[in-house]
Amino acid sequence: MMTIAIVxxxxxxxxxxxxxxxxxxxxxxxxxxxxxxxxxxxxxxxVDLVVTDYRMPEPDGLEMIRRIRSMNGHRDVPIVMLxxxxxxxxxxxxxxxxxxxxxxxPVDKVEFQVRARNLLALRxxxxxxxxxxxxxxxxxxxxxxxxxxxxxxTIHRLARLAEYRDDETASHTVRMGNFxxxxxxxxxxxxxxxxxxxxASPMHDIGKVGIPDEILLKPGKxxxxxxxxxxxxxxxxxxxxxxxxxxxxxxxxxxxxxHHEKYDGTGYPKGLKGDQIPIAGRxxxxxxxxxxxxxxRPYKPAWPLDRALRIIDEGNGAHFDPMVVRAxxxxxxxxxxxxxxxxx
Length: 344
Ligand SMILES: [Fe+2]
Ligand SMILES: [Fe+2]
Fold this sequence. Notes:
By secondary structure, this protein is α/β, with parallel strands linked by helices. The protein is built from 15 helices and five strands. One fe (ii) ion binds near residues 166, 176 and 204.
């Protein structure tokens, strides 16, 4: 049922309009003798068409149009204004305020019905279009969500692949991602950026898939030549991950190439210094080292916290960016919680 609100201070006219609308199939009239009452009703009611007289006690027809157009939900409702034959100026003003059509008084029944029908039909098709647009937007949102979920799934699998060649346990990569996110938070990164580093950093050592077993798995110390081969995992990792349309994989590539750089320029592969090292790499450096120090390895026990923190302090400004060390310490309680939660 479509509702037509009709406003006229003349009750005889109103009764006439009501009869005219009663003949229109699927339409119902809501009539008002006072424009003020009509406005009050419109504030909280939906309507499909407004027909308003021009000459009325305040607010008049023009003011009605102006107020209706400023109401939320009535910006697009069609409005027809009833005017006298000679009120050309008034019609122009009404058009300016957003009236859609006019009817000349005295109103002809058929003309009223035809105008009303046309405006209602237009409104209905507009509404269908809007519904369809909303439906499409929802479909796009769902599809985007799916693509994102698949991207994440692929990334989790890549991270799992990386674990198989890491010299530590699977939970090392999980802990490291979580530590990185905490440090990023204390550096003021957005939630999206925190999530990105959380997902990207577990792939920091994925380049180890390109290191021969006799070097990667060698018990005891590597020769200088073997060490040079081992260092190549940074560049191999970057080559595996780089140039992706995925922001997470691009970040992972950045991390792979830069997680062994040191703040004072003595790291590898490029010997970058300070701010030349991407911030994600600087964050991963401290997270990776801290987790290695506080975890048990085949060749060492897990170090106690104070000893690990001493190493971090000694590396402050040398291996590690002081700004990142500060953020790491601010987040230390959270990091220790995570360490306990993801203990292997
Ligand atoms: Fe590494
Ligand atoms: Fe690592």
